[in-house]
Amino acid sequence: MKLSILDQSPISSNQTAGDALTESLKLAEACDKFGYTRYWIAEHHDLPGLACSAPEVMLGLIGGKTKNIRIGCGAVLLPHYKPYKIAETYNMLATLFPDRVDIGIGRSPGGSAEATNALSDNFLQQVFKMADLVDELLHFLKNDFPEDHQFSKIKASPVPQKTPIPWMLGTSAKSAQLAAKNGLPYAFGQFMSDVDANLIIEEYCKTFKSNQFGEAPKVLLTVPVICAATGERAEEIAWSSIIWQILQNRGKGQRVPSIEEAKAIELTDKEKDHFNTVKQKMIIGNPQEVKNNLAELQAKYNVEEFMILTITHSPNERMESYKLLAEEILGY
Length: 332
What we know:
By secondary structure, this protein is α/β, with parallel strands linked by helices. It is built from 13 helices and nine strands. It has one domain: TIM Barrel. The protein has helices spanning 17-34, 55-65, 83-96, 113-119, 123-128, 130-142, 173-181, 197-207, 231-249, 259-263, 269-281, 287-301, 315-330; strands spanning 2-7, 38-41, 70-77, 101-106, 165-170, 186-189, 219-227, 283-285, 305-309. Helix 1 (17-34) crosses helix 2 (55-65).
């Protein structure tokens, strides 16, 4: 079993955005030593509780502070951007950090409608053109446009010795089909989806077309995890993350509350139901309990790798969660 990290760079109620980004850097450095396979940082825009709006900036810093772990974005929100610029940016990273760079490709806006309008024109039209945008990006990465193509005479410079590996991120059959069609590895965001992942993954594997980015279908599953020395403590810590999601649904956009702040918030009956729904999607427990739960998911979905999303109020408890998993599963 391989473990990786999805970092949303959450800002706790006692932090600044700078504090949160510093903790993201510390997490990447530590998990490089812990034996995690890859570290991806997410892209969000104008969300008060999340610090990272420009993953490529953070990845340049993180790449220089780590040695072995693969680095990438989860996800590059492609409808906002020209594929050429994305190819240039990640080719640059792959030149600096050879054979360590991933490009997670997504199509969500990553923020409010106002932020979307400020970032790009015609976002929805670009979403409808997602297949074409992916195709263009892959041609730039492979440097293989047909001779009669308008972009055949340009390269996404610098051209690295090892091409960054593109991944398709998604929560639906549509994203899985796009991944399979292009022969890309697929990251399924279980924590964001209510659909049957098994059917989607099976269809992806069945229709996968091999190419230079993948000779065989490859899937990772993104799951939210809170791990602590005891199951009771893990349950306590999880309150912050769950209540934070409820606050976001209220439109408050607050930063991650402390356990005490979270427990002081009164919930409606509907929100109590939502609390339980969110909790059921999480893996919460001591190291052995978490390992057992992941093993069950591994058997159910036939996946080799899990990307772990852990949000806590305390950076130390987040770090400890990842460390405990590394000790239990990766032999750190």
